Amino acid sequence: MDIENLKVDLKERLTGGRYEHTLRVTDTAIKLAENFGESVENAKIAALLHDYCKCDPLEDMKQTIESDSNLPDSLLSFHHELWHGPVASVRIEEKYGVTNQAVKDAIFFHTTGRANMTKLDKIIFLADYTEPGRNFPGVDEVRATAETDLTKACYQAARNTVRFLMEKNNTVYPDSFHAYNDLNQQVF
Ligand code: DGI
Ligand code: FE
Ligand code: FE
Ligand code: FE
């Protein structure tokens, strides 16, 4: 994978703000991979590609979900914010030949998390939540926890997100609950 070419593609596909977010997520993910003993190369590629489809037309994402047997159609009855990770996980294989299942899964689940998250899943989920441009309520606590405890930091991020969605009377995708419950059981 030629990282410089990839960055040129990302700059074309994403808005300026989204591109800058992607670079901050990548820096954050690399640090987490170094601190917690994960492949820096996989963390870097997953982070660079995690929002690859974030700015795609909704109709294109919808068609991909309908036609690709790896993508659950149930996504379509939940908020379209949930579509870009799963769709990216298939698009990046077509475009860049990314077949590494661990990388594809970390991208697929970066918005919701899931039960039994791998270390790479946790790193991308957490890098996306804690990158320095984020100012969610509670993010500083999660940043502090991420210095020492990857699983507990993911738990706090998952809990904050589910709580935030419920406060706004939004629906919560099942994988978000599965992540919350499983991380809770790992922490307590
Ligand atoms: O793509 P990013 O903005 O960098 O971050 P993301 O992929 O984590 O997407 C965040 C959005 O997704 C945020 O507005 C909250 C929303 N979200 C996360 N989990 C769920 C969710 N929305 C719904 N409706 N249900 C969920 O379970
Ligand atoms: Fe995202
Ligand atoms: Fe499908
Ligand atoms: Fe993101």
UniProtKB/TrEMBL annotation:
Question: What keywords are annotated for this sequence in UniProt?
Answer: Hydrolase, Iron, Metal-binding, Nucleotide-binding
What's a Pfam family in this record?
Answer: HD
The signal peptide, as residue positions, is: none
Give the top-level enzyme category.
hydrolase
Query: So what EC number does this one have?
Result: 3.6.1.41
Stored SMART domains: HDc (SM00471)
Give residue ranges for domain HD/PDEase.
Answer: 14-142
- Reaction(s) catalysed by this chain's protein: P(1),P(4)-bis(5'-adenosyl) tetraphosphate + H2O = 2 ADP + 2 H(+)
MF term (GO), any: bis(5'-nucleosyl)-tetraphosphatase (symmetrical) activity
Source domain of life is: Bacteria
Q: State what protein this is by name.
A: bis(5'-nucleosyl)-tetraphosphatase (symmetrical)
Organism encoding this protein = Oceanobacillus locisalsi
Traced from the root, the source organism's taxonomic lineage reads: Bacteria, Bacillati, Bacillota, Bacilli, Bacillales
Q: Which gene encodes it?
A: yqeK
